[in-house]
């Protein structure tokens, strides 16, 4: 996908904590359509194309369910190659009687569901860029009812066989405690505001994408961070287009007294709401 490749900075891998690894694996294979890329100890890497890990699921010791009204994952979002693929997924959910939500966001069409631990998942396709409406530097977004019949018709000749090759991690949406502070932090990471006036939320991107990072205070302004041993987001990985861009980002963080730790060839930091982020170049 255009905005999930160089020269943009984008989300590639989301690490989740779950309460029952076997149950979660069954869900992510049979409902979402992932394939196993690698298993090690209590952690499983999941893929769409058999090459790139998009999601990891891990069952830590003494894990507990995430409390409501805390910061952390709102949803991770899988971007499909085509609207026909979205139609095939929608028909699959109908066939298995999966309870879902949906939204037409003007720039995209999306389906929503939760995994067995309540972790939010979006599966979506982008509309052509020529149909996005820009008002200066900001793109118009909304949440409207999808045209389900049109999506199903588009996918009528596409059989669901799991996530198709070409599926990527389109974006991540986070619950945070303070939008203004969090916006400043993600500016340091290289993201600009794409949609500033959504109720209780903010959408940020590199380039002219509608968003790589979604932020909201719907859990409450000043919400507490998720407990370390709770289900939900462990971390997510940002891929930078070059060492030069990453080094500039690290300097931005250092200048602004943001803690960064180097570990196993990657840099790790946390946003103001304690969401952990891994910074890498590939």
TrEMBL record:
Keywords: Aromatic hydrocarbons catabolism, Dioxygenase, Iron, Metal-binding, Oxidoreductase. GO terms for molecular function: dioxygenase activity; ferrous iron binding. PROSITE patterns: EXTRADIOL_DIOXYGENAS (PS00082), VOC (PS51819). CDD domains: VOC_BsCatE_like_C, VOC_BsCatE_like_N. This is VOC family protein. Belongs to the extradiol ring-cleavage dioxygenase family. Residues 9-126 form the VOC domain. Its cofactor is Fe(2+). InterPro entries: Glyas_Bleomycin-R_OHBP_Dase, Glyas_Fos-R_dOase_dom, VOC_core, Xdiol_ring_cleave_dOase_1/2.
């Amino acid at each position: 996908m255009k905005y999930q490749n160089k020269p943009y900075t984008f989300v590639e891998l989301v690490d989740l904590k779950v309460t029952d690894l076997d149950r979660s694996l069954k869900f992510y294979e049979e409902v979402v359509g992932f394939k196993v890329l690698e298993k090690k100890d209590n952690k499983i890497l999941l893929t769409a194309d058999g090459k790139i890990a998009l999601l990891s699921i891990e069952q830590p010791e003494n894990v507990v369910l995430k409390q409501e009204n805390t910061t952390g994952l709102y949803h991770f979002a899988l971007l499909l190659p085509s609207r026909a693929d979205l139609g095939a997924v929608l028909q699959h959910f109908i066939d298995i009687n999966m309870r879902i939500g949906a939204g037409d966001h003007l720039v995209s069409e999306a389906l929503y569901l939760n995994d067995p631990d309540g972790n939010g998942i979006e599966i979506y396709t982008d509309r052509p860029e020529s149909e996005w409406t820009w008002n200066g530097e900001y793109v118009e977004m909304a949440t409207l009812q999808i045209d389900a019949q049109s999506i199903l018709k588009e996918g009528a000749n596409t059989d669901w066989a799991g996530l198709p090759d070409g599926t990527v991690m389109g974006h991540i949406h986070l619950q945070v405690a303070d939008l203004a502070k969090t916006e400043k932090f993600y500016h340091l990471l290289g993201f600009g505001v794409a949609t500033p006036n959504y109720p209780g939320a903010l959408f940020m991107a590199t380039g002219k994408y509608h968003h790589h990072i979604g932020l909201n205070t719907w859990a409450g302004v000043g919400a507490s961070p998720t407990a370390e041993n709770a289900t939900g987001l462990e971390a997510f990985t940002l891929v930078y287009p070059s060492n030069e861009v990453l080094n500039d980002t690290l300097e931005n963080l250092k200048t602004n007294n943001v803690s960064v730790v180097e570990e196993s060839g990657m840099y790790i930091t946390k946003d103001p709401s304690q969401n952990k982020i891994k910074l890498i170049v590939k």
